[in-house]
Design brief:
The complex is a heterodimer of chains A (187) and B (128).
Chain A: H1 2-29, H2 34-38, E1 47-50, E2 67-75, E3 81-86, E4 92-98, E5 103-108, H3 109-112, E6 116-123, H4 124-128, H5 132-136, E7 142-146, E8 150-158, H6 165-173, E9 176-179
Parallel strand pairs in A: 6-7
Antiparallel strand pairs in A: 1-2, 2-8, 3-6, 3-9, 4-5, 4-8
Chain B: E1 8-13, E2 26-32, E3 37-45, E4 60-62, E5 74-79, E6 86-89, E7 97-105, E8 121-127
Parallel strand pairs in B: 5-6
Antiparallel strand pairs in B: 1-7, 2-5, 2-8, 3-4, 3-7
Classes of the chains: A alpha+beta (187), B mainly beta (128).
Chain lengths: 187, 128
């Protein structure tokens, strides 16, 4: 009897462990996550507008239709990325997601406190490699460390009413995302 | 892709205050107030997270669009047929959910606000 109970207990234990492991690796095996859905339309280190959600379909489920959005799929393997976006009159936010869609940083227009949200995105190693003088001036230079080499920067501007959507879109259109070592793109 | 914590907080509902699942063929009334935030949006989705087609192309409200009473509270009617005031069309779908997103708000997981945070009351009126 005890032996059967022990076998039963072991069976349940193994089942529980397999279940837990399966759930935990699920995000890494997903083939339809935000990063992969955006890959075909978003080349590396470039800002591309995200199509607005419609009843016929959307890039991702549960997108907020009151926002104009754009995305920059970043790749830090060739160096840090410089990012900037002017803030709109309503509400502008920039959120950072790792390769596995985990939000690791977000900033909005009010937290930035300027007319532009400007920052440098780099890996922990790249930050450690910064020359010291540059680190001193870092007080007025916002540095964000990414836990993964690739990921997503999502830029969103609110249109408080539908008529203001063009304003929100033009804010987003002015966002820039590029490798820091490259000369600034002429606009 | 969740809303980042530095960005905002979202709340979702698929039932009314009595636990009855939202039915797009019924009139549902939201009354009251939301927690303090610089902006909020309320959006209606089907179970898969898509917007629901309707004749007026309205998928939600923002805090700036809404008509309010003198005391700042509001009333939103979520219903299949047009109604006066703040009408959010359901398109007659069987099940839907409402997502309230607060942007730039002090409300968060860490504030432990719980019951003190004002949330709109959600009541199912009549079904057709």
């Amino acid at each position: 009897m005890t032996r059967w109970l022990l076998l039963l207990f072991l069976g349940v234990l193994v089942g529980a462990i397999v279940h837990l492991i399966t759930i935990m690796i699920l995000p890494w095996t997903a083939t339809q996550d935000a990063y992969l859905r955006l890959s075909p339309i978003a080349p590396f280190n470039t800002v591309v507008p995200m199509p607005a959600p419609t009843p016929d379909g959307a890039l991702m489920p549960f997108m907020d239709p009151a926002f104009a959005g754009a995305v920059c799929r970043y790749d830090l393997s060739r160096g840090p990325v410089k990012f900037s976006v002017p803030v709109s009159q309503a509400y502008t936010s920039v959120s950072f997601y790792t390769r596995n869609d985990i939000a690791f940083y977000a900033i909005n227009d009010r937290a930035a406190g300027r007319r532009n949200i400007e920052l440098d995105l780099m890996t922990t190693t790249q930050r450690a490699d910064l020359p010291e003088e540059e680190d001193v001036t870092a007080a007025d230079q916002l540095i964000v460390e990414s836990p993964t080499t690739t990921g997503l920067i999502v830029i969103r501007a609110l249109a408080p009413e539908p008529g203001l959507m063009p304003v929100a879109r033009s804010t987003i259109a002015a966002a820039q995302c590029r490798l820091k070592s490259e000369p600034s793109a002429a606009r | 892709m969740p809303v980042g914590l530095g960005d905002g907080v979202s709340f979702s509902a698929q039932t009314d205050d009595n636990g009855k699942f939202f039915d797009g063929r019924c009139d549902v009334m939201l009354t009251g107030n939301t927690p303090t935030a610089r902006f909020w949006t309320l959006t209606l989705y089907d179970a898969a997270g898509n917007l629901v087609a309707n004749s007026v192309n309205r998928y939600g409200f923002t805090s700036q669009e809404i008509l309010r009473r003198a005391d700042g509270s509001f009333e939103i009617v979520v219903a299949p047929r047009a109604s006066s005031g703040n009408w959010l069309p359901t398109g007659g779908v069987e099940r839907y959910l409402l997502i309230l997103r607060l942007y730039d708000t002090a409300v968060g997981v860490s504030t432990r606000a719980g019951k003190e945070v004002p949330m709109p009351l959600v009541k199912t009126l009549d079904c057709r």
